[in-house]
Design goal:
- The protein is mainly α.
- Helix content is 56%, strand content 2%.
- It is built from four helices and two strands.
- It has a two-stranded antiparallel ribbon with strand order 1-2.
- Helix 1 packs parallel to helix 4.
- The chain is elongated and about 65 Å long.
- The two termini are 46 Å apart.
- 13% of the residues are buried.
- The N terminus is likely disordered.
């Protein structure tokens, strides 16, 4: 009788067929790589060679996270510059007020040059351009944010294998990624999001 589970087996008395390699799941820190599966059953470490390849893949995946963060930062900066370069609603309204004053003062000798005030500078047109640009920018930022959140949770799952070798590979990947892509202060840590 199995006293560990009160007389019951871990699978409720059912024999489960073995599907692929056996995976050892640890909830405590370990250096043991026997039957180590990294996140997926198919990512099974069965030899020293597969361990080294897996650790290199983990390091590259983690380095890639810094690449995604850098792409996001660059997009954030360039979209901010682009949004600032668009005509503002207030400057356009000011231009229209000046234009209407100049038309009413035609008798005063002020000449209205229509080339300086094309229809594209009307508040409605500017609002449409700015609104569309803001929507597109926000959509891209949201997509990049979603990729970062997914990526960071994936790295968290790697770390939660509780295997010391995998944890070191994550740290090495973070180092490589920061050296390759990091242009921001090093105080920002890899967090779940």
């Amino acid at each position: 009788m199995d006293h560990l589970f009160g007389g019951h087996t871990a699978h409720g008395g059912m024999d489960m067929p073995a599907e692929g390699p056996m995976c050892n799941m640890n909830m405590l820190f370990t250096w043991d790589t026997t039957n180590l599966c990294i996140i997926f059953r198919w990512w099974h470490v069965s030899s020293t060679w597969t361990l080294l390849l897996s650790l290199a893949a983990v390091a590259l995946l983690t380095a890639g996270y810094e690449g995604v963060r850098e792409v996001s930062r660059r997009y954030e900066n360039s979209s901010s510059e682009y949004m600032n370069s668009l005509p503002s609603m207030y400057s356009t309204l000011f231009d229209l007020v000046i234009r209407s004053i100049s038309r009413s003062c035609a008798k005063c000798g002020i000449k209205d040059d229509d080339d300086n005030y094309p229809a594209a500078r009307s508040p409605l047109w500017v609002g449409r351009i700015v609104g569309t640009a803001e929507q597109q920018t926000k959509m891209v930022k949201a997509a990049l944010y979603a990729v970062q959140v997914f990526y960071s949770f994936f790295i968290m799952l790697l770390f939660m294998s509780y295997n010391g070798f995998v944890m070191l590979a994550v740290a090495v990947g973070a180092f490589i990624g920061y050296m390759a892509f990091g242009n921001s202060p090093a105080t920002k840590s890899v967090a779940c999001h």
